[in-house]
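Suppose a colleague, Dr. K., hands you the sequence of a protein chain of 409 amino acids and asks what its three-dimensional shape might be. Before reaching for any lab equipment, you can write down a predicted structure in token form. Begin with the sequence itself:
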Amino acid sequence: MNFLELIKMALSALNERKLRTSLTMLMVVIGSTLITSLNGLNAGVSVFIYDQLSMLGGNMLIISPSGSTNLFNSRETGKIPLTSQTVKTLSRIKWVDDTIPFIRGVATIQLAKKETSILIVGMDQNKFKLVVPKAELLKGVFVSPTDSAGIVLGYKIAYDEKGELKFNIGQTLVLKVSKVEVIGGTQKVVLKEKTFQVKGVLKELGNQLIDEQAYVSLSAAAALFGKTNEYDGIYVITKDTKYNDEVEKTIRRIYGSNIGITSPKAIAETINNIVSTFNAYIFSIAFVSLLVGAIGIITTLFTSVMERTREIGLLKALGFNNTIILLLFLFESMIIGGAGGVLGFATGIIGAHLLAKIIPFGITGIKPVFYIKNVLYIWLLVFTLSILAGLYPAWRASKLNPIEALRKE
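The predicted structure, expressed as tokens, is then:
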């Protein structure tokens, strides 16, 4: 008997028990769907993070006054203020191409009849493309370092959700900043206002941070936020990404751990580690559901062996040896696992897209991504588990004594 005939016999046996086969396959489909959906979402999140960070210069280190080594690993250490002297010191380090100090703070702006908080960044905009290489002006010009009243808007500040322009070139807007001042020996919150004229609007990058920020000159930001002698950070541009580590070590030798150094690569690695840890936990839950499906296969086939004892005895009496009987039941588990894996892949793709829309993770733009090798790996995992689940019932069926089997009612 060839394999094709065995497959036909296995299909016929499964077809005779449609309901039980369907329920068993459903368990496999659920497990396969969960793993496929999570795998696609995980890959989509990784691609999203890479795309967002790739908009920043790869040959850039972000220096902050805190003693944290990166944005997600803060430590309480001595704080070194970032001043013009710090800029000079950093600019003299070997392989450093440029240094760009910046000041940033939150201000409120009148948007669509309501006040909204936005992040204002003050920096030398002649060097803007060193920080965000993909940034381009949609209209207008960048603000010169001596301009104390010009402002460049991110796309989502200049345009509303319907794509209608809210702030055109030449239009004025008022930024409001809350400050705590001592008046008459008592601290009071004082609201400070400053009028700016829109000089430029950036093209949409799809990066929420850049699209929802506004940019002024360094001097204008210092005056707006009352920071005269200190910066909030310094962008250190290296001559090439391969020098980032060497420059970081040199900065560490100078300032120790009393200064914060962050790179896009470090941010990506930290976020990926967090996402990977979370996904490992979710995958373990999904794998348990696959094991439940495997147990379902064992139960179904074992029950089938018990019900078909006389049939097995008759087959053996007709000349079917133990190997053929074993293969017959193994083919049944393979069909359940193989078909369940394929259906689970299809429903997994649909499920991932639904999850991405229902649960946008607080941000938009995440699209599930499915790599062929990952899909094949999941299918092989499901298929292998199905074979393993079918081994014991198949072995029990192959070992039945034909005489005793024929006597069974």
